[in-house]
Design a protein that fits this description.
366 residues, binds pyridoxal-5'-phosphate, alpha/beta
Length: 366
């Protein structure tokens, strides 16, 4: 079986380092936040090129707290992409604000700045670009619109650890940015995890309070907050894995380049669009085809995982039925949901397995 992501293969390459890191946390009984999380936060802030990194329990918690710290709440509209994982819009809704969608660029499937402009109303408070599949959104025009209309920008960088935009790094390009360390992400914990990065001292201070019961000091609570703290073990594991991330990202880039080279020109298949404005982190290699079901039948025989990111655009989810956004509201995102599928991609995939995938795609569409 060729999985979409092989977490076991990656773990095997660094197992002694991971065991040692966990051992240290156990020896020190530093189970919640503490020195291992703090040292990861320093290293991750430096990696991202941001002044602060604050770890939380998940990427969703990171989004929720970044929005709250930025003052987003009931009565606000927040513009984001309908083509993303559900959590982006979910976290907007958790604050009491309303997620408002703008259709995406047909190539990159990232927010289309001109469509964002058209979606702005008197209630709009913020824009949340998602760096989908590891490619940064087109930040310059988005930031220009935000500046002109006095809106906040918060990045959803959950899929974009190590991606760049021109001379900037994902996670350093807006008021705040949110990362997920879900195991399958480019930098994954061995459990749940997430982080907020920011250059803004006030946002950092607010997130620090909110993630830990609004408590600046044990048993003193200045605001009502959450328990969104990260485990010490995950902090220690993430520190180990961060040292390998640049090499893993290079391996992803090389494999993605190889897919593109070998599948170029195949009829009935649309390859991912590289906007060329920075370094793509290749979280996913997502292609499109009208004949997805035919490809999946061949994949089933060839024992290749079938994956769709994402089969239902967020505005069509049952959970958002009250937004009243019928089929046809965002045709580009809807068309992508109908035709997208992701090819196996992880640093340890290797050329032999990749060739097996390439042959299966060619067999189905050739
Ligand atoms: C994974 C992901 C999230 C949520 O992160 P969790 O750690 O699973 O809570 C949010 N946004 C995007 C784009 C994601 O891919």
């Amino acid at each position: 079986m060729i999985p979409l992501v092989d977490l076991g293969a990656q773990l095997a390459t660094i197992r002694p380092e991971i065991d040692a890191a966990i051992g240290k946390v156990l020896d020190q009984t530093a189970f919640v936040l503490g020195p291992h999380v703090e040292s990861f936060e320093r290293a991750f802030a430096e990696f991202v090129g941001a002044k602060h990194a604050l770890c939380v329990h998940s990427g969703t918690a990171a989004l929720h707290l970044a929005f709250l710290a930025a003052g987003i709440g009931p009565g606000d509209d927040v513009i984001t992409a309908p083509s993303s994982f559900f959590a982006t819009a979910e976290a907007i809704a958790l604050t009491g604000a309303r997620p408002v969608f703008a259709d995406v660029d047909p190539g990159t499937l990232n927010l289309d700045p001109e469509r964002v402009r058209s979606a702005i109303t008197a209630k709009t408070k913020a824009i949340v670009p998602v760096h989908l599949f590891g490619q940064t959104a087109d930040m310059d025009p988005l930031r220009a619109i935000a500046k002109e209309k006095n809106l906040l920008v918060i990045e959803d960088a959950a899929q974009a650890h190590g991606a760049t935009y021109k001379n900037e790094r994902a996670g350093s390009m807006a008021l705040a940015a949110c990362f997920s360390f879900y195991p399958g992400k480019n930098l994954g914990a061995l459990g749940e995890g997430g982080a907020i990065t920011t250059n803004d001292d006030a946002i950092a201070a607010r997130v620090r309070l909110l993630r830990d019961h609004g408590s600046p000091k044990k048993y003193e609570h200045t605001i009502v907050g959450y328990n969104y703290r990260l485990d010490g073990i995950q902090g220690a594991i993430l520190s180990v894995k961060l040292t390998h991330l640049p090499a893993w990202t290079e391996a992803r880039r090389s494999l993605a380049g190889r897919y593109t080279e070998k599948l170029q020109g195949l009829k009935g298949l649309t390859l991912p669009t590289d906007a060329g404005h920075g370094k793509h982190a290749w979280h996913l290699y997502a292609v499109r085809s009208e004949h997805r079901e035919r490809v999946f039948r061949v994949f089933a025989d060839a024992k290749i995982a079938q994956a769709i990111h994402y089969p239902i655009p967020i505005h069509r989810q049952e959970a958002f039925r009250d937004l009243n956004l019928p089929e046809g509201s965002f045709p580009i995102a809807e068309e992508a949901a109908r035709t997208l599928f992701s090819l196996p991609l992880y640093p340890e995939l290797g050329h032999e397995k990749q060739d097996h995938v390439i042959e299966a795609v060619k067999k189905a569409l050739g």
